[in-house]
Amino acid sequence: MLTRTFRLLLVGFRSLLHYGFLESVMRGIKRAPRAWSSLPQIPFFRYFHCIPTYLSLPRTKMPSSVIPVVHNHTHREDIDEALAVDALLFSVNNHQKLVDPQQQQEQQEHVPGTPVPSVYASPLSKADQWQTTIENVVNAIVEIRYCRVAPFDTAGIDLESGIASTNLILGWHAGAMTSSATGFVVDAKLGIILTNRHVVSSGPFVGVAICHDQEEVDVFPIYRDPIHDFGFLRFDPKKIRYMQLTEIRLRPDLAQVGLDIRVLGNDAGEKLSILAGSLSRLDRNTPYYGQLTYNDFNTFYLQAASNSSGGSSGSPVINIDGFAVGLQAGGYNSGPSTNFYLPLDRILYALEYVRKGDPVPRGDIQTQFLYRPFDEVRRLGLNQVTEDSVRQTFPDELGMLVVATVLPDGPAYGKLQEGDVLLTVNGNYITKFVPLEAIFDSHIDKDIEIAVDRGGKDICYTIRVGDLHAITPDRFVEVGGSTLNEVSYQLARTHAVSCRGVYVSGPSGMFILNGPGHGWIIKSIDDQETPDLDAFIAVIRTIPDRARIPVVFYSITDTHTILMSVVQMERHWTPFRLATRNDMTGYWDFIDLGDPVPPRTIKIPKMLSFVDMTTTNNGPPILLNRSIVAVSYYTPYLLEGYPFKRRSGTGLILDKERGLVVVARSAVPNAMGDVNLTVADTLVIPAKVVYLHPTHNFTIVKYDATLLRDTPVMSASISKKTLQRGDPVNLLSYYYSDNPSYLTTTVVDIYTVNIPSCHSCLQIPRFRGINHDAIALESPLAACSFSGILTSPEDHSVQGLWLSYLGDSASGYENEYRNGLHISQVLPALRKLQQQKPGDRPIGIRSLDVEYTSVALHQAFAMGLSEEWIRKIQQASPTRHKVLQVHRVPVGHHTSELKEQDLILSMNGKVVAHVYDMDMEEDDEESSSFEEVELRILRQKQEHTIRVKTTVLSGLGTDRMVIWAGAVLQAPHKAVLQQSKILPSHIYITDVIYGSPAHMYGASETCWITHINSEAVNTLDDFIQAIRDSSDTPYVRVRCVSFDNIPSVISIKMVNHYFPLVDMAMDEEGNWVNHKIQ
Question: How confident is the model at residue 310 (pLDDT cuts 50, 70, 90)?
Answer without folding.
Answer: low
